[in-house]
């Protein structure tokens, strides 16, 4: 059970977020939509607990994973070590099978810099799911990928979510991603940003709002 | 075939460039010694061999070389440890930076000689004073370099380590240290070069062993050849340390960049 109850978040006098309240059950997938610069990334940082300076309360589970806009890997450690150092409880064998699941097991001994961007993102996904998280937070994870790779990654993410069944919070600009991964959508707007509407993914409004968002 | 092209390529080989550059320096030395034509002012390079052999055989050269090297190590280790810790704190915690920055400016601009003389006056003409003087001279440099490194730490990697709850030691070893490595290498390099020069001054002023003491001794005898023998021997040792220790470590740490 995840409960987000943010009354106010500000940087100095600059108020970013106000009155954002929602609850999620484990296994539920939620998409957060909104124009860029509105404070979606700030909201995610509050939810995962990187930023603790806000008014309000957030109940989050113990095991959290996050997929960032960039892969955010340790470039000085091998692909395999990027899993085993972040998840020390994971054995080499389990780490290898996590790489196998994401299709980069043959790269285990390379450094991340030797992988393509798509492969680096697969590693970031493997790292996120390897810890069997109860909450997975994804911050525009497919941005800057070409359409084919993005589609592959989307399919892989879908499968991994189905296997691990965490609660998922997804920030995205793409209506396609929101519709495929999420059941519920929240739309942020205004300054300071707040939730202006909540709707089920796949409904016409989600589609049109997504389109509008991109324009 | 295109000989000029092959020639210019050969001339760009790093080892060859290094050797020719050193050779050029030697040529200048020989020319200058020829022009002065007075071995008591500047002896020819080959005239140093006999005094070098004598000093090495008598055991004087190895003993004083060893003493200086020992002082360099004794000063290098604490100077690096304290400088790294201070610099890192200053780079990460703005309040610490605000408080310590003026001190840093004062100590950076305090001449090495002043610190050495004050240490000898306050602590006495002993080994402790000598080492402390060198350490105090070096800490501000290390701290300044490491502060830049700590400021340049990638916030995204920090966030990643925090979300995935990496243990503090793992974070230090695998997330922070690799990012600080170039700054550590830079501080160690410039550190060791500066430290041995200051150690020589410390020995010159108030020790009865070490290269600095010997240079002081032969300076009073106006023996340029022996001054050069001692100075060049230590330069040789430092080049060895660089080639055998610093460069291999740096290569290992940089492996991921070139892979």
TrEMBL record, chain A:
Record InterPro entries: AAA+_ATPase, ABC_transporter-like_ATP-bd, ABC_transporter-like_CS, ABC_transporter_ATP-bind, P-loop_NTPase
Keywords: ATP-binding, Nucleotide-binding, Transport
Ranges for domain ABC transporter: 1-215
Domain of life: Bacteria
GO function terms (MF aspect): ATP binding; ATP hydrolysis activity
Keyword Nucleotide-binding among record annotations: yes
Family: Belongs to the ABC transporter superfamily.
Protein name (database record): ATP-binding cassette domain-containing protein
The species this protein was found in: Rhizobium fredii (Sinorhizobium fredii)
Lineage: Bacteria, Pseudomonadati, Pseudomonadota, Alphaproteobacteria, Hyphomicrobiales
TrEMBL record, chain B:
Subcellular compartments: Cell membrane
Keyword ATP-binding tagged: no
Entry keyword Transcription: no
Source species, domain of life: Bacteria
Transmembrane parts of this sequence: 21-42, 69-91, 103-123, 217-246
GO biological process, one term: transmembrane transport
Membrane-protein topology: Multi-pass membrane protein
CDD domains in UniProt: TM_PBP2 (cd06261)
Domain ABC transmembrane type-1: 65-245
Keyword tags: Cell membrane, Membrane, Transmembrane, Transmembrane helix, Transport
Main location: membrane
GO CC field: plasma membrane
PANTHER family xrefs: ALIPHATIC SULFONATES TRANSPORT PERMEASE PROTEIN SSUC-RELATED (PTHR30151:SF38), ALKANE SULFONATE ABC TRANSPORTER-RELATED, MEMBRANE SUBUNIT (PTHR30151)
Recorded family membership: Belongs to the binding-protein-dependent transport system permease family.
Protein name from the UniProt record: ABC transporter permease subunit
Source organism per UniProt: Rhizobium fredii (Sinorhizobium fredii)
Organism taxonomic ancestry: Bacteria, Pseudomonadati, Pseudomonadota, Alphaproteobacteria, Hyphomicrobiales
């Amino acid at each position: 059970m995840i409960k987000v109850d943010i009354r106010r978040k500000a940087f100095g006098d600059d108020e970013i977020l106000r009155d954002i309240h929602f609850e999620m059950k484990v296994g539920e997938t939620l998409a957060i939509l909104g124009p860029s610069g509105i404070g979606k990334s700030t909201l995610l940082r509050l939810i995962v607990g990187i930023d603790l300076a806000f008014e309000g309360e957030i109940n989050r589970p113990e095991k959290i994973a996050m997929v960032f806009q960039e892969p955010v890997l340790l470039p000085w450690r091998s692909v395999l070590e990027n899993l085993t150092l972040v998840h020390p409880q994971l054995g080499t064998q389990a780490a290898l099978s996590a790489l196998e699941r994401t299709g980069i097991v043959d790269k285990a001994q390379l450094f991340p810099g030797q992988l393509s961007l798509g492969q680096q993102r697969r590693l970031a996904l493997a790292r996120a799911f390897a810890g069997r998280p109860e909450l997975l937070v994804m911050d525009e994870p497919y941005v800057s990928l070409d359409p084919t790779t993005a589609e592959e990654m989307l399919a892989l993410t879908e499968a991994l979510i189905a296997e691990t069944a965490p609660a998922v919070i997804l920030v995205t600009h793409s209506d396609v991603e929101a519709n495929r991964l999420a059941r519920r959508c929240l739309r942020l707007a205004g300054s300071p940003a707040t939730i202006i509407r909540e709707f089920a993914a796949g409904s016409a409004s989600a589609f049109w709002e997504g389109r509008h968002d991109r324009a | 075939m295109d000989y000029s092209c092959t020639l210019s390529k050969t001339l760009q080989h790093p080892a060859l460039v290094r050797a020719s550059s050193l050779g050029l320096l030697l040529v200048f030395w020989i020319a200058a010694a020829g022009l002065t034509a007075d071995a008591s002012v500047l002896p020819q390079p080959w005239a140093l061999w006999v005094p070098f052999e004598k000093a090495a055989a008598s055991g004087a050269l190895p003993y004083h070389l060893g003493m200086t090297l020992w002082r360099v190590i004794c000063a290098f280790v604490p100077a690096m440890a304290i400088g790294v810790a201070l610099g890192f704190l200053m780079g990460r915690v703005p309040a610490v930076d605000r408080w310590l920055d003026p001190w840093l400016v004062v100590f950076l601009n305090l001449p090495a000689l002043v610190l050495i003389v004050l240490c000898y006056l306050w602590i006495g003409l002993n080994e402790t004073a000598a080492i402390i003087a060198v350490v105090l001279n070096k800490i501000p440099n290390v701290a300044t370099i490491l502060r830049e490194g700590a400021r340049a730490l990638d916030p995204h990697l920090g966030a990643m380590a925090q979300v995935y709850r990496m243990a503090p030691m793992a974070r230090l070893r695998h997330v922070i240290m690799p990012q600080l490595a170039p700054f550590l290498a830079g501080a160690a390099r410039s550190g060791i070069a500066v430290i041995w020069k200051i150690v020589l001054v410390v020995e010159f002023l108030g020790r009865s062993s070490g290269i600095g003491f010997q240079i002081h001794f032969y300076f009073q005898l106006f023996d340029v050849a022996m001054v050069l023998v001692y100075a060049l021997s230590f330069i040789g040792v430092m080049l060895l340390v660089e080639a055998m220790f610093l460069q291999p470590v740096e290569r290992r740490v940089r492996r991921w960049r070139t892979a």
